[in-house]
From TrEMBL:
Its EC number is 3.6.1.27. It comes from Jejubacter calystegiae. It catalyses: di-trans,octa-cis-undecaprenyl diphosphate + H2O = di-trans,octa-cis-undecaprenyl phosphate + phosphate + H(+). It comes from the Bacteria. Pfam families: PAP2. One of its GO terms (molecular function) is undecaprenyl-diphosphatase activity. This is undecaprenyl-diphosphate phosphatase. The chain crosses the membrane at residues 29-48, 60-82, 122-142, 154-172. GO terms for cellular component: plasma membrane. Keywords: Hydrolase, Membrane, Transmembrane, Transmembrane helix. InterPro entries: PAP2/HPO (IPR000326), PAP2/HPO_sf (IPR036938), UPP_Pase (IPR033879). Residues 61-169 form the Phosphatidic acid phosphatase type 2/haloperoxidase domain.
Amino acid sequence: MLEELNRSWFLLINATPNSAGWMLDSAQYIARDLILVMPALVVILWLWGRKHEVSAQRQMVLKTAIALVASLAISWCMGHLFPHARPFAIGLGHNFLYHAPDNSFPSDHGTTSFTFALAFLFWHRLWSGALLMAAAVAIAWSRVYLGVHWPMDMVGALFTSLCGCLIAQLIWNQWGSVLYQRISQLYRYCFAMPIRKGWVRN
């Protein structure tokens, strides 16, 4: 039943050779490149910001990093426990984005983008999290639209990301203070010259 629903949703979303060229081009950009905005944002939050907000921003960045590692580890385990072929690998629908015919569940792109979005929702600002969630949903849609993922791959990615954020919060509650101090010391040592010149925050 669930597999039939998955296939029905996929065929409803998946592009066809008759789809508009601008839709395909937009989806390819979203599927490949939009995700790059997310790590760029956390780098910016670590390096720059108002003096009284930098500490909170950096703690949020570290939580996000922990959540991402946890989410991708869970995703890897789920992929090996519940292997699932991609749509094009079984000849279903149309494929408009090159991808190796490896396991599809859950989506790594979906897991990564949803983890960033949830992290910003939980630990940063509601508006920033909402914007990143919209971007994550767009990425999820684009990869189904282009034929490299199933809808359930993205549902699995969302739940994987939720688990990753929960694990990150539990780890932070236990060891966050020490971790933040150690990483901050390492940052100040490695970025001593840019900090001294005022290019980045201390």
